[in-house]
Write a structure and sequence with these properties.
This protein has 415 residues and is an alpha/beta fold. The protein folds into 2 domains: 208 residues, Vaccinia Virus protein VP39 (Rossmann fold), CATH 3.40.50.150; 125 residues, Rossmann fold (3-Layer(aba) Sandwich). The strands form 4 sheets. The chain has a 7-stranded mixed beta sheet, sandwiched between helices. A 6-stranded mixed beta sheet has the order 16-15-14-17-18-19. The protein has a 4-stranded antiparallel beta sheet with strand order 2-3-4-11, with helices on one face. The longest helix is centred in the C-terminal third of the chain and has 27 residues. The termini are far apart. The protein binds zinc ion. The site of zinc ion (ZN) has 8 residues, from loops.
Length: 415
């Protein structure tokens, strides 16, 4: 379960070699490795992006591990705290889990992959001691905001150091970490080591059911090694002596699941919500080949339709830009061959760390959204389409002029 860098030939959870290839998206650049102007002429790294499904445990996964130091480099530009809905949802975790916890003052909450500290801020507000672990320079933002954060990759070995210095944690959280980590076994051992015997471990993962249902194929990228449904997740946690008490669906990243796990004891039982979701997945065909054959066909058809529509506008001399620059935009743009010759630039809100950089592979400049108001283009492709409702509301308020193209789940034009 602790993967080596490079091509994989076996399932990332159960080690089976019985894998079904769903689709190949070609060679794609690491999505958060945005380029500086001086690097534009260099040939950037690209890696194969193939989606597969394990016929044994059901895990949907990619078959190539890019070095985590390349993916989650020091200047990693993604901040969870700048997406308002997400920030609110992350901060709310604390309220949901602590309703029944009275003594808080000396309890410790640790967040793994804590980014800018959005989750821990919620816990700190209601009186917990908090500690973040984050390998990128985003940790500096968290520290500046008063959330104590260690800049480090979390591991079993490192968990021993933390335990020695800070003691065990009552609550450990990890949002969008399980899909990203290549050394899963080591990670879970570390969490088991660091968690109180009665402690709670909460993890959030982008949900495969939502990816299929709302056609989020653009969320397939190298940072996401796995696309979780509950069945393989149960298997993974049980192997590491955890049991799921509860699961809930949450809206983050266009549909995620949040699972609550505790250390396995003699009499522990899987929660009823977990069993319910498992049955729902079976009914919806999440463990059937046909579901993925259809998904694959739909992706290939989308590519043709979408590139055609955009190219037709370009042929008519229309000026087109992108709105929002999430990691997933790189898959959409690179897979559909839409580059800097087609999109003039991508507009980002002014708090984004991506402004002034260029998208890898497609080399589109990322600029302050102000430009799209001062000098409006004809069309704008909504690249953050999974948040399009709140973004459009905001843009309308500010009298945004261009026509908006929402690419997914279905190509749609908003005037
Ligand atoms: Zn498997």
């Amino acid at each position: 379960m602790d993967l080596k860098i490079g091509r994989l030939f076996k399932c990332q959870i159960c080690n089976s070699s019985s894998l079904h290839k769903i689709i190949s998206l070609g060679k794609i650049s690491p999505c958060d490795s945005l380029l500086k102007k001086k690097d534009l002429s260099k040939k950037g790294n690209k890696y194969p992006l193939n989606l597969l499904r394990c016929k044994d445990c059901g895990l949907v996964q990619i078959d190539y591990v890019v070095n985590p130091k390349e993916l989650f480099h020091k200047n990693y530009p993604y901040r969870s705290g700048i997406t308002k809905d997400l920030k609110n949802n992350l901060e709310k975790i604390s309220k949901n889990v602590t309703k029944n916890l009275k003594k808080r003052s000396n309890k410790l909450v640790i967040d793994i992959g804590s980014n800018d500290g959005s989750i821990l801020k919620g816990f700190k507000k209601i009186g917990f001691k908090v500690l973040g672990i984050e390998p990128t320079n985003i940790s500096k933002i968290a520290n500046r905001d008063g959330i104590k954060t260690i800049q480090e990759f979390f591991s079993h070995k490192y968990s021993k150091k933390i335990k020695k210095k800070y003691g065990k944690a009552s609550i450990i959280t990890a949002s969008n970490v399980f899909a990203h980590v290549s050394k899963l076994s080591d990670l879970l051992k570390g969490i088991h080591n660091l968690l109180d015997d009665d402690g709670l471990f909460i993890s959030e993962s982008h949900y495969l059911g939502s990816i299929i249902e709302t056609f989020q194929f653009d969320s397939i990228y190298h940072e996401h090694l796995k696309y979780y449904s509950i069945k393989p997740l149960i298997e993974l946690f049980e192997r590491h002596n955890f049991i799921f008490e509860k699961v809930e669906k949450i809206p983050n990243y266009g549909g995620s699941i949040r699972v609550y796990a505790r250390k396995k004891k003699m009499n522990s039982k899987i929660g009823s919500s977990v069993k319910k979701l498992l049955n729902e997945e079976i009914k919806k065909g999440l463990y059937k080949k046909k579901t993925y054959d259809d998904f694959s066909k739909k992706i290939r058809k989308f590519k043709l339709n979408f590139s055609n529509k955009i190219l037709n506008l370009k042929r008519r001399n229309k000026k087109i830009i992108g709105i929002g620059c999430p990691g997933r935009a790189m898959t959409l743009l690179e897979y559909c061959n839409i580059d800097h010759n087609i999109l003039d630039y991508i507009a980002e809100q002014n708090t984004s760390l991506k402004i002034g950089l260029y998208t890898p592979g497609t080399k589109i400049p990322v600029l302050d959204e102000k430009k799209s108001f001062d000098d409006p283009p004809d069309f704008a492709v909504m690249l953050s389409w999974h948040y399009s409702k709140s973004i459009i509301k905001n843009l309308t308020k500010k009298k945004f002029k261009p026509k908006i193209i929402i690419p997914l789940p279905k190509i749609k034009l908003v005037n």
